[in-house]
Amino acid sequence: MKVILQKEVEKLGAPGDIVEVKDGYARNYLIPRGMAMQATKGALQHAERVRKQHEGREAKALDEATAFAKRLEKTPVQVQAQAGEDGRLFGSVTAQQIAEAVQRSIGEEVDRHEIRLEEPIRSTGTHEVRVHVHPEVNATITVQVVAQ
Question: Which architecture, in CATH terms, is 75-147?
């Protein structure tokens, strides 16, 4: 059965896409949940409008994410932590602490799950941390760890 997706469905497609699925999957899952509608002549015209609107929203979200990434990269973030005399931290700097520092310095929220730490930060100094802003946009922020 050919259906037109109304919402994004993982591993199937984006809104406005016309896909071929099994009859039971369409009738019992996609259509009752409002994720898709049956592909008819009138619905195909509607699908084109939905697809264009989705592309517009995606382009706008990408532009906003790119601008946010530039703001993130421009401002260094400072995190205070307890450290010994040799510069080693008692513990490590977490993604939550970095997210709170970004909130204080920039004034915009970053989800702690989007902060990608390759390895825990366990020393004072300057560190580069990657932030996943959008599926296509990543920002690299500078984190300065200062001893309390």
Answer: Roll (3.10)
**Contact present, 103 and 110 (Cβ < 8 Å):** yes
Is 34 in a helix, a strand, or coil? coil
Q: What whole-number distance in Å separates Cα of residue 146 and Cα of residue 19?
A: 54
The helix (H) or strand (E) run that includes residue 20 is: strand 18-20
Domain ranges of the chain: 2-67, 75-147
Give 50-76 pLDDT, tens digit per residue. 788 888 999 999 999 999 999 999 989
pTM reported for the whole predicted model: 0.69
Between the CA of residue 145 and those of 38, 39, 117, 124, 148, what are the distances in Å? Answer: 56, 57, 14, 5, 9
Q: Which CATH architecture has domain 2-67?
A: 3-Layer(aba) Sandwich (3.40)
Check: CB of residue 1 under 8 Å from CB of residue 22: yes
Q: DSSP 3-state assignment of 4? A: strand
